[in-house]
Amino acid sequence: MMLLEHDAKELLRALGLNVPRATLALTVADAASAAIPVVVKAQVPVGGRGKAGGIRMARTAAERDAATIDILGMTIKGHEVRSVRLEQPVDFIAEAYLSFTVDAATAKVRILISPEGGMDIEDDAARVQLLSATSDLYPGEMQRHLDILCAALPAALQGPVGNAGRGLIQAFFDLEAVMLEINPLFITADGDWMIGDAKLVADDNAFERNVAVRSRIEQQPALYPEAALKLEQGFDFVRLNPNGRVGLVTTGAGLSMQLVDELTARGVSPFNFCDIRTGMFRGDPARLIQVLNWIAQGAAVEVVMVNFFAGATDLAETTGLLLTALDSVALKVPVVARLIGNNLDAALKIIADAGDPIAVETDLDQAIARTIAIIEGKR
Amino acid sequence: MATSPFFDPATPVLIQGINGRVGSNHARNMRAYGTNVVAGVSSRGDDVETVPVFRSTREAVAMTGARAAVAIVPALAVLPTVLQSLDAGIELIITLAEGVPVHDAVRARNAVKAAGARWIGASTPGLAIPGKAKLGFLPSASLAPGDIGVMAKSGTLSYEVCHRLVQASLGQSLWVGVGGDAVKGMRFSEVLPYFDEDPETRAIVVVGEIGGNEEEELGEALRARGTTKPVYALIAGASAREGVTMGHAGALIHGDVGTVASKAAALKAAGAQVFTRIADLIAAVQDGSTSARTI
Question: What is the pTM of this model?
Fold first, then answer.
C-alpha cells in the first residue's frame, strides 16, 4: 500500500535521512503552530497532487490557514483529503530524482536516477535524462549499481545523490519497501541534500514483522481506515460510495471485486467492498454483525447482497452465523443471499427452518437480478 | 489420454505442515481426490492416515522419492520452506499461504529459478487436473474433467468461473492458480507454454485482475509463441479506483499502470477475447467462436 507522504517522510527521518521540518494538520487549528513561509501539501495516496491544486505555498498566517481549509476540502482522484502536511520550504540549486522499485516480473530491483527531478517522470520520460539499472535485492548489489549510475551524473550532483542513495538503500530494506521514490531530491548550495517528496509503497504482507510502518497505520486509523481495519481485524471492508444502494457481505477478494464490477456495469452502485473471510469466523458471528452494522449506516442502502462461495468452508455453519447476526442488527432492508458450495443443502434447510428470513439464490446472476429487482421495485 | 506437460498426476507429493488443523484436512481431501500423497513433513505429530510424517523435507524426499511439495505453512515460514524444498531436490513447489512478504517472495523466486525448479504461489488455492489429482484445495463444486485450461490470479473468482463452466457442461484439462500476489513463483506468461503444448487443452481461460502487468506480458507471450488455441480472458476490477486496494495486495492501480484498459488492449492485440462480465465469458467459451460482446 502507498503511504501518505507525511508518514513516508517521517519514517525516513527516523532512519536518519534529511527531511524538511513539518507538522501534520487534520484541521485548520492543527496548522496554527506551523511557522511561515510554509508549503501546504494535500495528503492523498496518489500522484498529481500539484496539478490538482493540492500543493500551495503560504507566505502569511492568513494564506496558510486559507490554504489549509481549501485543501482539506478537496477530493483528489476520488480521495478525500483528510490531512495536510505543512512543510518548511527548502532553498535549492538543483533537483534530482531517485527511485528503487521491486520489479515483479524479474524479481529484481529497478534503480532509476536523474539529474532532473521535480517533474512527472513517466509523463516527461522522453525529455528527461534517466539512468537506470537492474539489481538483485541485496544492499551491496544495489549500492554497487547506484555508484556506477552516480558516476554518470554532473560532478556537483555525484556527492549528494550518492550520499542520499546510500541512506535510502538502507531504508528500502529497513522499511521492506516495494517502491521508494524521491522526487525531487533537493540539492542545496552547500552540497548537501534534502528529500523534497517521498513516495513509499510499503508491503502490507510484511506488517507482521515491520513494526515501524505498521504502527504508523495502527496509530492513524482516521487516515488509513481500510488498512487499519485489516490490521486490527484481519479482513477487508472498503466504503466505495456513501450513496451506494447495495450493501455487500461477500467473501473472497477477487470474486467480491468482480461482483462490484458486475453491479456497477448494471447501473447499481455498491455501498462497499468486502472480503469478510468466512474461513476465519470460527463459530463467531461478531464479524458479520460488525459488517452489517456498517452497512446499516449507509443511508441509501436498499438491499443487502450476500455472496458466499464455500470452497473450503462449511456453508451450513456460515449460514447459521449469518442468521444469528441478522437477528442482532437493526437492518431495515431485505437480504438476498447467493449461497453455493460445501453443505449447501444443510444451509438451505437452516434458512427454511427459520421461516425464510432471507431470499436465497444459488446462481450469482440470479442473485444479482433479484437484488436489482428489489431496488427497481422501490423506485 | 496424454499426460499434462505441466504435471503428471502420478507424481509423488509431500505436504509440509501436514499436522496443522488446515494441513491435515487438506491432506485428507487431496488423497481422497486421488493425489499421490506419499509423505508429510512436520516438526511434531504422527502419521496422517497412512501417510508417514517426517521431521524434515530432506528426510521425506530421501525416504519416499517425493518430487512435488505442497506447503501449508504460515506466510512468514514460506521462504524457509521453499528453500528446504529446493535443498531436498523438489521440482514443483506449491505454497498456499496468503501474505508472503514481497522481499521474501523475491528471494524465493530467484532461488527457485537458480535451482531450475517451478514454484506456484503464493496466495493460491493450488492447481488441479480434474478427476486425477489436485495440489491444494480447489473446490469440488468447480472441478470437472474437460478440455479448458484455466489460469487464475484470484482463488474465489476462479471458483466462480470454473463452477459456471461446469454448469455449462464444460470442464478443465488443467487449472493453475498462479496467485494474487505481485511477486510470485510462476506468472501467466510462464504457465502459458504448458497449456499451449497440452494436447488435452482446447482453449484457455484467463482469470485476471487489475494491477501489475501480468496480463500485458501474457499478451506479448501469446503473440511471441503464435498461440492458436482460443484465449478467453476475464479481468476483474473495472470499477476500482486508483490507490484503493480491494483485498489483493497486487490488485492496485498506480497511474495508468495495471488498468483494465491496458490489459484488455494487450490481450486483444494477441487475438484473445476479453470480458468484464462472467456470463459473457462463459457464453463465448460455449460458443467456441468469436463473440460480439467483448469489450
Answer: 0.93
